[in-house]
From TrEMBL:
Protein name (database record): Sugar phosphate isomerase/epimerase
GO molecular function: isomerase activity
Source organism of the structure: Glycomyces artemisiae
One Pfam family linked to the record: AP_endonuc_2
Lineage: Bacteria, Bacillati, Actinomycetota, Actinomycetes, Glycomycetales
InterPro entries named in the record: IolE/XylAMocC-like, Xyl_isomerase-like_sf, Xyl_isomerase-like_TIM-brl
Domain Xylose isomerase-like TIM barrel positions: 28-255
Keyword terms, alphabetized: Isomerase
């Protein structure tokens, strides 16, 4: 299933625009594109919401016919337990996270110990934990960590854009992680020469115009055959002003949704 994530609204809910979107505003914008899935990912206000606000947001999602996934950073057992409770409120069946959190960078043995402690509750609730490919942990180590847990309720959130910072090749990462991929972050990326030809900027690109070989990902991961959701997000640079940036972000979202729907 194609879904939108919080990073598709990165600028629209930021304090750099005059009227930042609320979470429910983002739900409504998602349904306007005839999309049935939303991943609340790295959305800072979520953990500060009251029980009433959480229930209202979850109710709004249900009323709109939206399925919800959650996303956070870090794998400390108490943190994962908190997001499991949030998953129950939103009826979410997937929580995306990262091995490295805001306040922790565990060794691989420590990460395995934390996951071993946290995963039984995820299994009991029928929720899958998806650990994202990032430069802090090699993809090989991440895949081996997932396998070492022995749990059916853990896998990889595949985002080939992130791994370039570790000098990993996106296509190789796709092939390595494909068997254990349970979630995909769908965005394009490219290098552009800086002014004066002194180096490059690595940033987002409109889907289908950059370096991401998405057809290769579809062949290797087979997300639509396996029921792996594809979550739209962007790395959109600030466009010089709020109005131009919001227009570009909205256009990139429409472009990505159309691209994913058209490609097989």
């Amino acid at each position: 299933m194609i879904g939108l994530g919080s990073y598709a609204f990165f600028w629209q809910h930021s304090d750099r625009v005059e009227r930042p979107l609320s979470l429910i505003d983002e739900f409504e914008a998602t349904r306007e594109l005839d999309v049935d899935l939303f991943q609340i990912c790295d959305y800072a206000p979520l953990e500060g919401m009251t029980d009433r606000e959480l229930k209202d947001a979850a109710g709004a999602a249900r009323d709109l016919g939206l399925q919800i996934e959650l996303g956070t950073k870090g794998i400390e057992p108490e943190h994962l337990s908190r997001f499991l409770a949030l998953a129950e409120i939103f009826e979410a069946k997937l929580v995306r996270s990262m091995v490295t959190g805001p306040d922790s960078a565990p060794t691989l043995p420590q990460a395995l110990a934390w996951l071993t402690e946290a995963l039984p509750a995820y299994e009991s609730q029928g929720v899958t934990l998806a650990l994202e490919t990032y430069e802090q942990v090699s993809t090989k180590d991440l895949v081996e960590l997932v396998a070492a847990t022995g749990s059916p309720n853990i896998g990889v959130c595949l985002d080939p854009a992130n791994v370039v910072a570790r000098l990993e090749r996106p296509t190789e990462v796709v092939e390595l992680a494909a068997p254990v991929t349970v979630n995909v972050h769908a965005k394009d990326f490219a290098f552009a020469r800086q002014d004066g030809w002194v180096g490059f900027t690595y940033s987002g690109a409109a889907m289908g115009t950059g370096l991401h070989d998405y057809p290769h990902l579809l062949r290797e991961v087979r997300p639509r055959e396996r029921g792996v959701n594809e979550i739209v997000e962007h790395w959109l640079p600030w466009q010089g002003g709020a109005e131009a940036t919001v227009r570009a972000e909205q256009a990139w979202t429409r472009t990505t949704v159309d691209y994913l729907r058209s490609i097989r």
